[in-house]
Amino acid sequence: MLAKKLCLDNKLKELMVFPDNAFPFGIWQDEFNETVGQILNYHWHETIEMNVMLKGKLDYRLNDQRFVLAEGDSMVVYSNSLHGAALREKEDSAEMLTIVFSADLLTGGGAGTIYQKYFQTLSNQGFLGKQLKGDSEIGREMSGLLVSLAEIEENVGYELRVLSQLSLIWEKLFKYLLEQEKAPLEKRPEKYEREIKAVMSYIQKNYQERLTIQTLCEQTEISRSECFRIFARFTQKKPMEYINDYRLSMAVALMLNTQWTVERIAQECGFKNASYFGKMFKERFNQTPKSYRIDRRKEEESIG
Description:
Blueprint: E1 25-32, E2 39-43, E3 48-55, E4 58-62, E5 65-69, E6 74-77, E7 83-87, E8 94-101, H1 104-107, H2 113-124, E9 129-132, H3 137-150, H4 158-180, H5 190-206, H6 213-220, H7 224-234, H8 239-257, H9 262-268, H10 274-285, H11 289-303
Antiparallel strand pairs: 1-8, 2-7, 3-6, 3-8, 4-5, 4-7, 6-9
Helix pairs in contact: 3-4, 5-6, 5-7
């Protein structure tokens, strides 16, 4: 299993790359710690994602819903749902198994009976996803099935065994949702979802420039109060806090993949000066940018 890195387009949609794009199924292990990072940035994708917490605790966001994922818990994230995660306060590290697949694998890529009954039904009801607690019967069963799916050996018949296990998992999940969810599933907050995607998309494309709340509101045609409201609802951050978080994630990538000076990286990522960048970086990673770069390169050399 590989550590999963996000590649996003300008609408925060993840550009999913599978080991075999003709078989849209992938397994990754997401790690959260001070070394590799403590946040999985907010994003979305057309594929379906299923997670199992292997270690530690995470604060997990699904659209505007908030969860705490603990060891043994599972999470199902349906197509096109905004989601992200962060290491929970006072946790040193966490590990999460991530399995991603396209519904096309189980439906044959068409809109036939399987798609209509077991996927379109959920879409029509606005299904976002579901947390399955590890101390519940369905939670224990799902986490066990997902771990078993990840452990299937890649030899002759691998794809067939994956399809068989994945079909079993989806059948059990669908039956659980059908039988246990007595009330209709809550509709997706489409208006707010469109707004937050629009604002985040603008930030991603323009984070190198001077950004203000007024600029965000003018460019996305929402009011100042609405801007703060949707950020609080979806990210629990103020808009400028989110912008600085995004800039820091871009800065880390440049720190590790270029020889650029700290001063240049600060400038390229939209920070007003290197001093302010250093202050923000240390608050986030408990190290100065230079120390962080030195330590990460020493780790790479020791591994290599």
